[in-house]
């Protein structure tokens, strides 16, 4: 570790989530009156940056916003969560990334993500901030940016000996072979299923999926299983870590909390066991609160859950 707090660089998406709550989602062609609408900062990159910062890391975000009214809200949201946004670029004449999320009363949702400026983050943009990546303890990557840019960011980190943690979400059907060459990959079950082209429903199937990811080049493969915890495999041993018992109300961003927490604790402790414990606690806490960024736990929340559980 290069300082007191882990230094994390996130290359990823920054979105405004427009959340509309309604009794039941409209069918194609139907118009309904919905109950409420809220603007909530989101995007997997920004969520993981905020999560890592709340967990005590020094975080730099590399990304792109547009020049619309959301851009300043998104940047100030990141900033107020302690994330350094000096490597976030602004694109003229385009909107910032947006996710339109309809949620009906029984919790089912429909999501349309428009990448907008996130889709314009190029390998050249990443090159501009090579020094930021070089100075980090770990690079956190997700796939809501162009795949070519994610591949390039991972290559830069690798060239500087900086470990890469990839949350492969959303999982592309044609998964670039270069992205198996990462230190940690943490798909959920459905992402692992898309990447490997087979069902990943049971704990045994998740173990075999994690082992398969390792055989393709991943050093440490984690398959997250929601309320059933997570599997971690280092290429020779696969271990299941059960989930923390909590009252789950909304699992949005549980995976983002998990990925960021794993990165923070793994860099701090150099222990996979401790990092799994810490990240399962962070994921559980995120699932126990509504929303994406509002649900991301602080370090104090995670430590207190770990202490309560240890008693
Ligand atoms: P994603 O949000 O990417 O789909 P998961 O739903 O698998 O990811 O959640 C990530 C992690 O968060 C899980 O491995 C688990 O440790 C924790 N978690 C998620 N949902 C719950 C839950 N209902 N109860 C306890 N822990 C949970």
Shape: globular
Strand content: 15-25%
Give the names of the bound compounds.
adenosine-5'-diphosphate
Span between termini: 30 Å
Provide mean pLDDT, rounded. Answer: 95
**Residue runs with pLDDT of under 50 for 5 or more positions:** none
Walkthrough of the structure:
Helices cover 36% and strands 23% of the residues. The two termini are 30 Å apart. The longest helix is centred in the last third of the chain and has 16 residues, at 254-269. The chain has helices spanning 44-54, 69-80, 123-128, 130-134, 147-159, 189-196, 203-215, 254-269, 272-287, 299-310, and strands at residues 7-11, 15-22, 36-42, 58-65, 83-84, 88-90, 97-104, 109-114, 138-142, 164-167, 184-185, 220-224, 230-233, 238-241. The strands form two sheets. Strands 1, 4, 5, 6, 9, 10, 11, 12, 13 and 14 form a ten-stranded mixed β-sheet that branches. By secondary structure, it is α/β, with parallel strands linked by helices. The chain has ten helices and 14 strands. The protein is globular and about 55 Å long. Bound molecules: adenosine-5'-diphosphate.
């Amino acid at each position: 570790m290069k300082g007191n707090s882990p230094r994390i660089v996130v290359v990823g998406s920054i979105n405004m989530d427009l959340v509309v709550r309604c009794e039941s989602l409209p069918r194609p062609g139907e118009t309904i009156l919905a109950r409420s609408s809220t603007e909530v900062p989101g995007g997997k990159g920004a969520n993981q940056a905020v999560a890592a910062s709340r967990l005590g890391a020094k975080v730099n975000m590399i990304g792109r916003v547009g020049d619309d009214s959301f851009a300043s809200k998104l940047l100030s949201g990141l900033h107020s969560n302690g994330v350094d946004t000096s490597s976030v670029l602004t694109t003229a004449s385009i909107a910032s990334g947006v996710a339109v999320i309809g949620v009906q009363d029984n919790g089912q949702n429909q999501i349309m993500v428009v990448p907008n400026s996130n889709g314009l983050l190029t390998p050249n943009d990443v090159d501009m901030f090579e020094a930021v990546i070089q100075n980090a303890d770990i690079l956190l990557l997700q796939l809501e940016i162009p795949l070519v840019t994610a591949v390039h960011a991972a290559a830069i980190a690798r060239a500087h000996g900086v470990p890469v943690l990839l949350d492969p979400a959303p999982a592309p059907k044609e998964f670039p072979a270069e992205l198996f060459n990462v230190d940690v990959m943490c798909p959920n079950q459905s992402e692992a299923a898309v990447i490997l082209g087979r069902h990943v429903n049971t704990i045994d199937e998740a173990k075999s999926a994690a082992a398969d990811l390792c055989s393709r080049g991943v050093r440490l493969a984690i398959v997250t299983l929601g309320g059933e915890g997570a599997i971690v495999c280092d290429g020779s041993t696969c271990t299941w870590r059960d989930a923390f018992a909590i009252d789950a109300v909304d699992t949005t961003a549980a995976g983002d909390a998990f990925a960021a927490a794993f990165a923070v604790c793994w860099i701090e402790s150099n222990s996979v066991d401790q990092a799994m414990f810490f990240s399962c606690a962070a994921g559980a806490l995120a699932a126990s609160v509504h929303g994406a960024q509002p649900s991301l736990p602080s370090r104090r929340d995670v430590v207190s859950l770990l202490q309560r559980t240890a008693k």
